[in-house]
């Protein structure tokens, strides 16, 4: 089981990877979204916010989210560190993403662009 | 933890419209005429309502599975949890192949509709045009919006009912022998093929991630199946009561024969519009489902990673979409050359029956395996509905296979090939492509403990 701090660190690593990628920022200029990242086994919530192509991370839940990512803390930390791809836990039900299908594909794409296959 | 609202949510009206809209297709009229062809008198309605009732059982099972595992992964996840991943993957791959067949049959029927209205344009031109338009839409990420889907589906169902009543009024219809289908075997075959009329109602389950409560998807599926049963039953009775059966059976677009008989050129124009509306949602949804499935499979190395390539401009899986385009056009050309579209209709009916039977079994299995799991919706009456669903649809699948030898052959061959693929090729792909890089995660290093000593 990962701790809340580990999830925070993984999200910051994700943010760092994202912000280094200028191409990704340009591609997401028109994709303003609020993403809630929630652990299912520990009390841990984070907000990822994409606005004008910039990604910010903060602890706690947003008032309203476009996408909600739910998984156990271990999966979330592995996922945002890029140690696992989202597809396998998504297909076996460990990872739940609530939102539109297009947004889910976009999130997967961002992860692919940051961490590779 | 606090409850966070979703910004974009769908209503029950749109869920019903999506479920019914994916099911209503131009090829549905072909299946409806086939159902009537098995039976004597005006008993098609009985077979269609029976098929609808059975699909309500299947819809209940999908509702419970969806409530238990709300995910766009659908049957892949349900069957994987209930049985095992290899079986789930084999069935999902086979199902997607059959969906491609349905798209092939649909394109052929729609091309026949358009060619009968404009004979100067050959069907091949219509088929290629349709694929190009839908592929272009898919690559650009254009989807049918909820409000447009509502308009198409409810407009379509309303129009079919109006047409049915006009036809029944013109012939002064009176039911003759409505309860004498002409034999039990004929009735079973009619119900089995009638399942095709409802193919795709469960494709709405991916919306589980776009609604506030998964019960909306459950209610939507049940309402859609109920509405479709009534519309199909009335329309089929109207077709067979007003138009000679031989003419209907002989045409790949029986709805055009019916419309011309009832309303002349105005009817033809009306039916062209209805067929286009019926096809666009099914055609588009079929291609999207298959291409997204190919993309997701490639992302987990079930298929070569080349299929997971995304368009950097539109964020859509272009490699998967183009693969589906190539496969779809090939299937449609084969159908156009052989005119054997009925095999695809029967194949879809049989495969859908297999999937519904497995859904019933999956409900029972998951209740045993995960009795404590959260499940906001459970089918009432214990295992009765899931067990009946499993038994009846297994029987219907066998009935279709007995009726059409090629269906048994193609399904069996498909299953054996995919079973081999899942057992031999998939592990090789995973071992070749799965990354073996060091973990990036900075795990806390455990303090070394002296062997045999315990710190106090």
Automatic annotation (TrEMBL), chain A:
Q: Which InterPro entries match?
A: SCP2_sterol-bd_dom, SCP2_sterol-bd_dom_sf
| Span of domain SCP2 | 31-99
Q: Tell me the protein's name.
A: SCP-2 sterol transfer family protein
From TrEMBL, chain B:
Kindly give the InterPro entries that the UniProt entry links to this protein: AA/rel_permease1, APC_superfamily
User: What's a Gene Ontology MF term here?
Assistant: transmembrane transporter activity
> Which coarse location class applies to the principal site listed for this UniProt protein?
membrane
Where does this polypeptide localize? Answer: Cell membrane
Which is one Pfam family of this protein? AA_permease_2
**Matching Gene3D superfamilies, A to Z?**
Amino acid/polyamine transporter I
Q: Where are the transmembrane segments?
A: 12-39, 45-66, 87-111, 117-139, 151-173, 179-204, 216-235, 268-295, 315-335, 341-363, 383-402, 408-426
GO annotations of cellular component type: plasma membrane
Q: How does it sit in the membrane?
A: Multi-pass membrane protein
Mind listing the UniProt keywords for this protein, alphabetically? Cell membrane, Membrane, Transmembrane, Transmembrane helix
Name the record gives this protein: Amino acid transporter
What species was this sequence derived from?
A: Desulfofundulus thermosubterraneus DSM 16057
High-level lineage: Bacteria, Bacillati, Bacillota, Clostridia, Eubacteriales
